[in-house]
Design a protein that fits this description.
- This protein has about 200 residues and is α+β, with helices and mostly antiparallel strands.
- The protein is about 55% helix and about 20% strand.
- The chain has one domain.
- The chain contains six helices and four strands; from the N terminus they run ααββαααββα.
- β3 and β4 form a beta hairpin.
């Protein structure tokens, strides 16, 4: 059976990293807010939507992993959205669900006993997160059309659609670029690297 650690803590781990991370976020937020207040243009609201949409898309991303995990017959032991302090925790059937302070990133922890098609199933579970975001992007893209998608708009619905679609596409692309992160459990593959390791990596 192929052994891959699906868990990943995408947040900073040391105290120094946390301070740097929060200071950077604060400076970005202040700079962005000042730019909006001093030089406001309606089209800039798409950037606000882009950032705000990242939060529900993070949940949707992890839901995609969990959904396909169940679809291939694997249990989901943990479903975690965000990192840092746990703000809400509950049990849903066999799954422990956690929502944490910073809702950026997350992971699921599947449990699989069968070895049939394990490589394909593992790759499918990894792809499901960015895959559902790509569905959101292409769904919106198909709805508003090519011209509206590329051109700045003053129409509220178009601005929201553009922001959500770009946020979904950005997240999907970032997650599909093969890379790894150092977590408390060691090195952990992101979705892109996880797909490659699932299909072509050494069996455990």
């Amino acid at each position: 059976m192929l052994e891959i650690d699906y868990t990943k803590d995408s947040g900073p781990s040391t105290r120094g990293e946390k301070i740097t991370y929060y200071v950077f976020l604060l400076l970005m937020l202040v700079g962005f807010s000042l730019d909006l207040l001093t030089n406001f243009e309606p089209k800039k609201m798409a950037a606000v939507v882009f950032i705000v949409a990242w939060l529900p898309l993070t949940f949707l991303h992890e839901f995609g992993h969990a959904f396909v995990s169940k679809l291939v017959g694997w249990e989901v032991k943990e479903f975690v959205v965000g990192y840092g302090k746990v703000i809400k925790e509950f049990q849903y059937k066999e799954t422990k669900v956690e929502f944490r302070m910073m809702p950026i990133g997350g992971y699921i922890l599947p449990h699989c006993e069968d070895a049939d098609w394990s490589r394909f199933k593992s790759a499918s579970v990894y792809f499901a997160g960015p895959g559902i975001e790509l569905l959101v992007f292409f769904g919106i893209y198909g709805f508003i059309g090519f011209e509206k998608f590329l051109n700045p708009s003053l129409v509220s619905l178009d601005l929201v659609s553009q922001g959500v679609a770009l946020s979904a596409l950005t997240s999907a692309v970032i997650n599909l670029i093969p890379s790894s992160a150092i977590t408390k459990k060691g090195e952990s593959a992101n979705d892109g690297l996880g797909i490659l390791l699932s299909l072509f990596g050494k069996r455990g």
